[in-house]
User: Which sequence fits this backbone?
């Protein structure tokens, strides 16, 4: 049996779906992208920091704990053996402090900015469009429900899921499209 191929994230390009989402953000149809992917493809598709909440981090993004500096690299900044400390070995160009990765490891809390922004935007949303998520990892899986829970009595909030598999929130979905994401986004 052949060994699985290991793919270098740095060689992967944003898909049609990533670019379609970036277009929705650019024309302000989409207010915020909430992502649990760490591959950085949403940022590489052109979505700015202000318009994305990367709940589990980004393997290309380094942050400084002392000042608000962030650095998007063209290489994976995760260092073997540094998982618990998050140190990347690079120093902040603004203040000289050690830089850290932005990845959220199992058992760690979600970053406050991402969690609060994602939750607030979900509560105010008229539509939560879920693309490719199994909706099984908490607390991220509950954010789309906030859109319908707060708007449902008024009949305004809707949940649309685009996924090839069923999710635990089928009963809450206004629509579930069982199709590849690129195919669906190509028709928007």
Assistant:
């Amino acid at each position: 049996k052949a060994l699985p191929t290991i793919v270098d994230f740095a060689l992967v390009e944003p898909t049609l779906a990533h670019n379609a989402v970036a277009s929705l953000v650019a024309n302000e149809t989409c207010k915020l992208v909430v992502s649990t992917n760490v591959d950085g493809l949403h940022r590489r598709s052109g979505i700015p920091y202000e318009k994305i909440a990367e709940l589990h981090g980004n393997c290309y993004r380094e942050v400084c704990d002392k000042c608000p500096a962030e650095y998007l690299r063209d290489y994976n900044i995760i260092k073997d053996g540094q998982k618990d400390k998050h140190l990347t070995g690079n120093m902040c160009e603004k203040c000289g402090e050690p830089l850290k990765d932005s990845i959220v490891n199992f058992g760690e809390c979600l970053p406050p900015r991402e969690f609060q922004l994602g939750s607030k935007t979900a509560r105010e949303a008229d539509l939560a469009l879920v693309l490719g998520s199994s909706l099984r990892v908490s607390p991220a899986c509950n954010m789309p429900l906030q859109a319908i829970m707060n708007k449902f009595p008024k009949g305004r909030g809707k949940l649309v899921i685009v996924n090839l598999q069923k999710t635990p929130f089928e009963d809450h979905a206004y629509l579930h499209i069982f199709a590849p994401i690129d195919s669906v986004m190509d028709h928007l």
